[in-house]
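[agent] plan:
  1. take the single chain provided in the ticket
  2. run structure prediction with default settings
  3. attach structure tokens to the ticket
  4. add a short note for the reviewer (M.T.)
[agent] executing step 1
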Amino acid sequence: MHKSVLLKEAIESLNIKNDGIYVDATLGYGGHSSKILEKLDKGLLICLDQDEEAISYSKKRLSEISNNFKIIKTNFERLKDVLDEINISKVDGILFDLGVSSPQIDNASRGFSFQKDSKLDMRMDQTNNLTAYDVVNNYDLLKLTDIFYKYGEEKKSKFIASFIVKKRPINTTIELVEVIKESVGLNYFNKFHPERKIFQAIRIEVNNELKVLEKVIPDAIELLNKGGRMAVISFHSLEDRIVKKAFKKYSDVDEIVKGMPNIPLEYQPKIKLINKKPICPSAKEIELNSRSKSAKLRVIERI
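[agent] step 2 finished; step 3 output follows
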């Protein structure tokens, strides 16, 4: 079953008030949500997710705690619109856990894992049209190279993309792993594990993950009440870089007016950093859950 990463740290960082309004923008299998809900007496928890399986499981799990929650099937990109639709303009806390849930990885049919044979899929939202199969078999050499380099940070991106184009059609995850192995040779494959990076890159492309993250952070900051907090757990350097950059931007005085004696309100910082450096899992958590190893938690407070 899915183990929520940095669970205690994330929940504590939100400073939950028992009558507050909170958003879990990445419900998953309800690990973080259930802990938030336990702390709410009169408050409300709004949960977003685009995965039907996760929603169905979590609905049952949360119902056993209380009824102070709403689950909405959507991508967190629509956070602001969704809250508008239910007449909520401000909230007291927002949590983002950007990892792929263990059940999604472990369910071979979803096509996220490079260790299990499955059709190439990788959609978080099963109703989306674009699949990993489409990316692998229909993108041209230039576009494939670009996403492998940009989203996978793989230095042999062009070699791998060329081989993929040559070997198409590629139907399954294991077929794709074999093509990657053939393109770079066994030594490089065993030493640097390019399949991890290529699968990550394809998943990010299929689910538009980084663009969505860049868009949602400013929206989420605007939605916070004064003193409200946002906690973001990221799992790779690309996500963490986006979060870190956005938090720095909104916690600094605008460059245009830096050094002025009286800084107008609209140019003053909107947030303060709660932790200057990201919070990482303890050695014990990594031992119990190896998938937590790369996780980083960053927290801000609205001022």
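[agent] step 4 note for reviewer: The beta strands are 21-24, 44-49, 69-73, 91-97, 224-234, 271-273, 296-302.
[agent] ticket updated
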